[in-house]
Amino acid sequence: MKEQNQKRKDILSLADIKQLVDTFYTRVRQDELLGPVFEEKIGSNWEKHLETMYRFWQTVLLDERTYQGSPGAKHITLPVGEEHFERWLGIFDKTVDELFTGEKAAEAKWRAARMAEMFAQKINYFKNNRGAIL
Ligand code: HEM
């Protein structure tokens, strides 16, 4: 974590993205609600997951298009509900605010909230309509 008296700046480089992603997932792994969900799915592939997340945020925030994928599909079958997304966003916003400030930092929080909303809707739909699909 940065020194208290060090001035926070915006998310401007890949190094900044890595700092944000590493700090965030360290906290997520230690969280009693989210930790087990991630460990179950990711297991020994954390390095790969972190690399994917660097590329995702690099694409979103720096407009350097290194990520391609369908994140929605990866979340639809996870055993999570509203409380997991609230916790995820709480840890994410806190981490962004502790480390950074500015337009990109605000965009990161906004984008995460929109995606959490979308995933939660998809998961709900999937739960309610599973009988009809299968
Ligand atoms: C309850 C909250 C969440 C949980 C438990 C969760 C869990 C996971 C897991 C386990 C994976 C790996 C999936 C796999 O490789 O099969 C993953 C991938 C990913 N997550 Fe989440 N996630 C959550 C919320 C979010 C949110 C809010 C975002 C929005 C920024 C996000 C963005 C992504 C992206 C971009 C990937 C990579 C997908 C790919 O492989 O292309 N996640 N997540």
From TrEMBL:
Keyword Ligase: no
Classification via SUPFAM superfamilies: Globin-like (SSF46458)
One Gene Ontology term of the molecular function aspect: oxygen binding
Assigned keywords, A-Z: Heme, Iron, Metal-binding, Transport
Residues at which heme binds: 49
Alphabetical list of InterPro entries matching this protein: Globin-like_sf (IPR009050), Globin/Proto (IPR012292), Hemoglobin_trunc (IPR001486)
Database matches in Pfam families: Bac_globin
Name this protein carries in UniProt: Group III truncated hemoglobin
Species for this entry: Pontibacter qinzhouensis
